[in-house]
Amino acid sequence: RSSWLLLAPLLTPPIPVITAPPCSLCPEGAHRFQWIRNLVPEFGISSSHVKVLSSPAEFYELLKVQIKAAKQRVVMASLYLGTGLLEQELVDCLEETLEKSLQAKGSPDLRVSILLDYTRGSRGRKNSRTMLIPLLQRFPEQVRVSLFHTPNLRGLLRLLIPERFNETIGLQHIKVYLFDDNVILSGANLSDLYFTNRQDRYVLLRDSPEIADFFTELVDAIGDVSLQLQQDDTVQMMEGMVHPYQGDKVAYCEIANRRVMEVINSARTRQELLHAKTFHSSQAGSILLSQQGSQASGNLKPEPDTWIYPLIQMKPFGIQIDEMVTETLLTEAERDARIYLTTGYFNLTQAYMDLILGTRAEYRILLASPEVNGFFGAKGVAGAIPAAYVYIEHQFYSEVCCLQQQERVQLQEYSRAGWTFHAKGLWLYLAGSDLPCLTLIGSPNFGYRSVHRDLEAQVAIVTENKALQQQLHQEQEQLYLCSGVVSTSTFEQPNRYVKLWVKLVTPLIKNFF
């Protein structure tokens, strides 16, 4: 019975693959990536506003500090909120900050908006919903909890697939945590493992109001097409909104597409106008500077040396910007450029695999060894998932060897006693450079799920600043230091034995994990 239920997701229709159009890059330095602003808003900031974090504990402490300091808004999007003591402490911080806001003179300014996935957030008797209901009851005018439900889980499929397995159809997977004008982008969820011994990536963008506004609007847009958690633990849609699994699927997806694309396009227009205004004022400033000397320089805002591009992927809604940008970056990477790519779940799409194997750049791909895979030691069918990843990894490695690309494309496995591995993203080093000028950081895993099933967001950070490039380089080095290079002998080890049934089932289910 459980095997049949595992295959039940195959009843959903396949989604056609759409490849990114070719796009040629500008020739010089970091500015060669300005083509991305044809698709999404470009936010120019000072590199001094960017801080790369390195540990789960640092991430957790920063969340608490930022919540306590928030005055206007707290916006948190995650897959789920855990139910342990550390998560309760976060909820207590929110309650304390809301209470302070309530007691302030006049009407309270603080607004809290939380976006989670419906299926993952509803799992078990004690879950994300039960953790947040006290906040809704105490602060009904200030707190909003939205639960995204994929439109692809509906009808007979929704009735047949049990809890946990229903999460394979599609999820809200975006992880963004913002507090007033400070934004944390990560792949980490709001759960105790991600605060203690589950390695991920995290970047803080300080004093970045335009970026904070963008992600607030994005979370609001997804929240508007999501189920709203009520004080009695029921859920309902906003008035007049099409229901994600009871209403017309095409109509729902069209509305969701329109809401999200409005956010992207309006931000893009705003940034273009701001860019033009800044350009003209900087020209005027240059003239003023030449006329009045160095005294005028103190009044001018420093030129940005770092650019942030939000990359959104929501294939259920027909939005595939992240896929287009990632494919273009892989396609256009020059000979002798180096790409360090990492994923906690090595299950690349065919398009990404073809580009890695067929292009000129050098690749160092970091993935989880079976022991640090998040599913290691899980009960039931889920316990076989690490073996399925080993099988997928072995197949890819065999293809690399078959094409004699072992020098150019190298696999490395992260291994650390007592830890699990969840980091994802990439660092791009231009030919002849010892430091990266671009990184991708956020929620996507470069797999079929990320591209086709889930709601994803990451940012491309492009920088000319050497100190920030050094921060990104150290982040990359620190992760790769805990790894060993994969070779033929890796797959001869006893812990790499893959049972025949796993080999047979993996091709059928690999698009669901």
UniProtKB/TrEMBL annotation:
Broad class of where this protein is predominantly found: mitochondrion
Endpoints of the signal sequence: 1-19
GO annotations of cellular component type: mitochondrion
InterPro entries found in the cross-reference section: PGS1 (IPR016270), PLipase_D/transphosphatidylase (IPR001736)
UniProt keyword annotations, A-Z: ATP-binding, Lipid biosynthesis, Lipid metabolism, Mitochondrion, Nucleotide-binding, Phospholipid biosynthesis, Phospholipid metabolism, Repeat, Signal, Transferase
EC number: 2.7.8.5
GO BP term (any one): cardiolipin biosynthetic process
Pathway(s) it belongs to: Phospholipid metabolism; phosphatidylglycerol biosynthesis; phosphatidylglycerol from CDP-diacylglycerol: step 1/2
GO terms, molecular function: ATP binding; CDP-diacylglycerol-glycerol-3-phosphate 3-phosphatidyltransferase activity
Keyword Nucleus: no
Catalytic activity: a CDP-1,2-diacyl-sn-glycerol + sn-glycerol 3-phosphate = a 1,2-diacyl-sn-glycero-3-phospho-(1'-sn-glycero-3'-phosphate) + CMP + H(+)
Segments forming a coiled coil: none
Residues covered by the PLD phosphodiesterase domain: 168-194
Subcellular localization(s) per the UniProt record: Mitochondrion
Top-level class of the enzyme under EC nomenclature: transferase
Reported function: Functions in the biosynthesis of the anionic phospholipids phosphatidylglycerol and cardiolipin.
Family (UniProt): Belongs to the CDP-alcohol phosphatidyltransferase class-II family.
Protein name, UniProt field: CDP-diacylglycerol--glycerol-3-phosphate 3-phosphatidyltransferase
Source species taxonomy: Eukaryota, Metazoa, Chordata, Craniata, Vertebrata
